[in-house]
Amino acid sequence: MSGKKINFQEKYSKFTKHWSPRIIEEMNDYQFKLEKIKGEFVWHDHKDTDETFIVIKGEMLLKFRNKEVKLTSGEMYVVPKGVEHKPCAENECKILVIEPRGVINTGEAGGELTINKDQWI
Fold first, then answer.
1. pTM exceeds 0.90, yes or no
2. Tens digit of pLDDT for each residue in 75-121?
3. Strands, E assignment, 22-110
4. DSSP letter (8 states) at residue 55
5. Which residues, in sequence order, are CB contacts of 117 under 8 Å at separation 6+?
6. 15: how many CB neighbours lie within 10 A of its CB?
7. Contacts (Cβ under 8 Å, ≥6 apart) of 26
8. Count of CB atoms within 10 A of residue 36's CB?
9. Are 45 and 113 in contact (CB under 8 A)?
């Protein structure tokens, strides 16, 4: 933990790639990750942990096998562990994801959007 103030907009200005989470801080065993999303991600789950999505700017859709949840700026949703989901955004959306250190973004689904190495900004 840095003990320093973090400005989201300044951090977002440091990267452009979609679906590429960037760690901005840690608290205990949890990481705070800024991400820009656009288009559709992959269906996946996280067997051992919940995952929190907070929309900073824009809107996104969390698809589940039996429903969809639309989130807009200032809203959040906690996806329970083991629940298959697929984040989507028609236009670029800036989000904050909170999850334990070591969680792979695509779970066990794998694929070209998998990030295996922590990327700090």
1. yes
2. 999 999 999 999 999 999 999 999 999 999 999 999 999 998 899 99
3. 22-27, 30-40, 51-57, 59-64, 68-72, 76-79, 85-100
4. E
5. none
6. 15
7. 1, 32, 101
8. 21
9. no
